[in-house]
Design brief:
Chain lengths: ~240, ~375, ~70
């Protein structure tokens, strides 16, 4: 994921000074410590709220917010839907490994019914979110899903998400062999990547019609709607008119 | 007098002062009795090119102002009890990452939803210890609108000077009462600008390496220096560290930079303290009733005075100890179960002479209430 | 544009955690894990410079350096 992100940024030709990466807490959030951008490692679940402050105060910066599934959609769920609703120009990357990895394998809102976790020893009875549907319903103007197996697609989607003017969500199915894999007999990292190959398909493919169980990959939404910072600049013009 | 006079609520006085101090960015969430601050700033900020955003909750509001401060802006949020509780984790983050910001808490009755439209001063100790872990904090208070203005400007100045969050601890009476405010001229009150690094682009900048005077020059986030900001213990580059020396020194720095500067930070007012046998200590709106009592009794020849605290944290222990050294009675007047009373008892030589005159029913404490307690203490009956 | 030709695999042994993703998904079975569970290129000559190992590595531990050979090359 880090790999594809860096390739996407390289391809965009952005300078490192133009990129701010804001992360919360979790395995995925440590990514901000590995890159040479402006990096803001914040508190659990709140990365998007911090990013909103950075972006609105400096709209010319590119904001990238990598999050885990627990970070983005459990503790951070409220900030997620509201950032999407505002359509503020931030790229949110949800690395969905279906588990809390940093604390040792508890179920997350994306684990899904019937999975096993240290806090669901008898199987999980929580239903999961569909990140794509949730994002679209919340108003995100760019919504895509890919996996860590589909690296070319991932780099391409991240590039498009960063270019998109508005709130972008990229869900990346990511392996956690250490906890999710072991608990759920999903095998090692290789097996999990294999499963992304066999259990997913392109949006609207023939395979999906034949096997509705397959998870679709690709860009689900991409629309032009007013972006928050642009709109606020109009407010400033309106407020200043007749005042100064 | 050509002075620009306004007749405003305390919350508006706070808004005027924040704009005077150069506020660029406000994020907030509506809550009684602080909402007017957000309403006025939603109108006023864009007129001066600033930004206002209503966030989805107080947690997000606090996070957003921290983000906006980091990029080089003067920032503020305003809330009341329940919202202030929600802000505690992010407040600790601002302390740890040393990001200047101002948080207004217009107190109402608590705990929980409590008394949304009534008066209390129950958040004094929460301001001090609300966020987890060892830390220091600056909290200011005011008893009238002119002081609301002065303390608000001071809050921005202290936030920049010490790279720390500063809490303005007002209360419902101050926030909603209307009173005269003289608007200071531009330049009349000195403003502290952000201390920015002189390190050039391409040269190593250490965001967390204090200068000799303890201050840390900042570099606007998103500018020419790239660095890491984290709520983990961190080294001078901002990278996480659990090295014992690094951890020890950072915590000492966070506490010492405020506690070693109590004298520079502390503001208070004194009324008739010379030769006073009875000293009232109060702050915020309850200081108004206290002053009324003092002036009334002084006119009848009683040796009574008032020490009004404007800086609540760091607690000005030595000033209290010194001022109360000769007093027969020290009576702390506040609208809680004795939060400052406890600190005063800890500060003076003879704590058995420190008494509490309080009210905790949501009704503003009157001079009569204070007099009644005084009569009890002095053995005169009620 | 002709087929690129392999120059070398640069492997950062410190970053490699031996997850085996590159080994498994290499279309030409070029890579293998050694006894220390670190990747090495044991059949370099079969590498077609698709760089999928490089792109998939979660830890940026492998880099495929190739020479671009033109169709009309010498």
């Amino acid at each position: 994921m880090l790999n594809s992100l860096l390739r996407a940024i390289e391809k965009l030709g952005l300078s490192k000074n133009e990129i701010v990466m804001v992360s919360g807490i979790g395995c995925s959030s440590r990514i901000s410590g590995y890159v040479d951008f402006h990096t803001l490692h914040t508190i659990h679940g709140r990365a998007l709220a911090f990013a909103t402050g950075v972006k609105l105060s400096r709209p010319e910066l590119n904001l990238i917010v990598p999050m885990g599934d627990g970070d983005a959609l459990a503790i951070g769920g409220n900030h997620f839907i509201h950032a999407a609703r505002r359509n503020i120009d931030i790229t949110a990357i949800v690395m969905n490994n279906r588990i809390y990895g940093m604390t040792g394998g508890q179920y997350s809102p994306l684990s899904g019914y019937g999975t096993l976790a240290t806090t669901a020893p008898y199987t999980n009875i929580d239903q999961d979110f569909d990140v794509v549907e949730l994002s679209i319903a919340s108003g995100a103007s760019f919504v895509a899903r890919t996996t860590t197996y589909h690296v070319q697609q991932m780099a391409d989607i991240i590039r498009k998400a960063i270019l998109h003017k508005g709130f972008s969500v990229v869900e990346i199915l990511s392996q956690c062999p250490t906890y999710f894999g072991r608990k759920n007999k999903a095998g090692n990292a290789v097996d999990m990547l294999e499963s992304y190959k066999t259990n997913t398909t392109s949006i609207g493919s023939k395979a999906k019609k034949e096997n509705p169980e397959l998870i679709e990959r690709g860009i689900f939404a991409q629309k032009e709607i007013p972006e928050y910072c642009n709109e606020y600049n109009k407010i400033i013009k309106k407020a200043m008119k007749g005042h100064s | 007098m050509k002075k620009n006079i306004k007749f405003v609520q305390g919350n508006e006085a706070c808004v005027e002062a924040a704009l005077y101090a150069g506020l660029d960015f406000f994020a907030g969430y509506p809550i009684t009795p602080s909402t007017e601050i957000a309403e006025h700033l939603a109108y006023r900020l864009p007129r001066v090119g600033g930004k206002f955003i209503q966030m989805e909750d107080e947690i997000a509001s606090m996070c957003a102002i921290i983000g906006a401060s980091l990029t080089g802006n003067k920032v503020m949020t305003a809330t009341s009890g329940p919202g202030f509780s929600l802000m505690q984790e992010a407040l600790g983050y601002a302390i740890m990452t040393e990001i200047p910001c101002v948080i207004v808490n217009v107190q109402r009755g608590g705990p929980s939803t409590g008394l949304p439209t009534h008066m209390s001063q129950g958040d004094v100790n929460q301001v001090r210890w609300g966020t987890h872990g060892d830390h220091a904090i600056i909290a200011l208070s005011a008893s009238n609108h002119q002081d609301v203005f002065a303390m608000t400007v001071d809050a921005f100045n202290l936030a920049e000077t010490y790279r720390t969050p500063v809490v303005l601890l007002f209360d419902e009476v101050i926030g909603h009462m209307r009173e005269r405010l003289f608007m200071p001229e531009k330049g009349e009150i000195p403003l502290v600008k952000r201390l920015r690094t002189s390190v050039k682009e391409g040269v190593d900048y250490h965001p967390y390496l204090p200068r000799e005077d303890g201050r840390l020059p900042m570099s606007d986030f998103g500018g020419v220096h790239r660095y890491n900001v984290t709520g983990l213990f961190h080294d001078m580059w901002g990278f996480p560290s659990d090295n014992q020396k690094v951890v020890h020194e950072l915590l000492r720095h966070l506490v010492d930079k405020i506690n070693n500067n109590v004298d520079q930070i502390t503001k208070f007012k004194e009324f008739y303290l010379e030769s006073a046998e009875t000293i009232l200590i109060s702050y915020g709106s309850s200081a108004r009733s206290s002053l009324h009592v003092v002036e009334n009794l002084r006119s009848r020849g009683e040796q009574i005075g008032l020490l009004e605290l404007q800086t609540l944290w760091p607690f000005p222990s030595h000033i209290i100890k010194e001022k109360c050294a000769k007093a027969k009675y020290v009576i702390v007047v506040e609208m809680n179960m004795g939060q400052i009373h406890q600190s005063v008892r800890g500060a003076v030589d003879r704590p058995e002479r420190v008494f509490l005159a309080n009210r905790i029913d949501g009704v503003f404490i009157t001079p009569m209430d204070i007099r009644n307690v005084m009569r009890l203490i002095q053995g005169k009956g009620v | 544009m002709g087929k690129p030709k392999l120059k070398e695999h640069i492997i950062n042994r410190e970053w490699c955690k031996g997850c085996g993703i590159c080994v498994h998904f290499c279309p030409k079975n070029v890579l293998e894990l050694d006894e220390e569970e670190k990747v090495f290129a044991h059949q370099k000559e079969n590498c077609i410079c698709c760089r999928l190992c490089e792109f998939r590595c979660p830890d940026l531990a492998i880099e495929v350096v190739c020479e671009e050979k033109t169709a009309r090359g010498k």
